[in-house]
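Good day; I would like, with your permission, to put a structural problem before you. The record follows directly beneath this note:
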Amino acid sequence: TAGTLNAAGVLANRLSLPAGLPDKYMVAWTLHRVSFDHAASINSLLYHHGIELSGSAFALLRPMNEALKRGAWIALCATDDQVQTFITKDKLPKVNLAEQIEQVPPFDEFPLFSKQHANAWDKFHSFTHAGSQMVGAYTQGESVGPAFQPELIIEVLNHAEAIAMMVVQIMVMIAGDFDPDLGHAVLGELNEIIPVAKRPQES
């Protein structure tokens, strides 16, 4: 819900990184913030504008997940040289980022990215790049316009909320390395607002 995302955002804003860290921490932090903002935007578009702007919400699914994946890879896997290449040349290595992430805790026990790629990535890509999934959703009714099914909209809202919660958890993990007490406190409060049954959906 919007309230859950707002509460998570307040908690995330309590976290910070100390000055003078290697660039990888700030880049990872930034990408996670971008992912959270996309999740909040999906939520806002669907709650405040309903079906009217739902196409824009669906178009944010891939960037939201892409920012999370890139941020997680940079935080958990990237070397300093790889981070500098990303900063200066806007390039990531031609490797399977998901595979590398899922060799590192906590993703070694929760292979979100590989499952998502198998189950939903083509749809996300199509929505973002105005492919057939988006065109199909806009041509289901009597006139041209978004006509996503209500159950699909609910699924997208749940997915965005779950991704936002994961983003804040990773931010807690990063910041907690430098301020364990604050990280522990924020994680405890975050766990109180995460719906028990909700986890990131792969489809």
The first helix runs from residue 2 to 13.
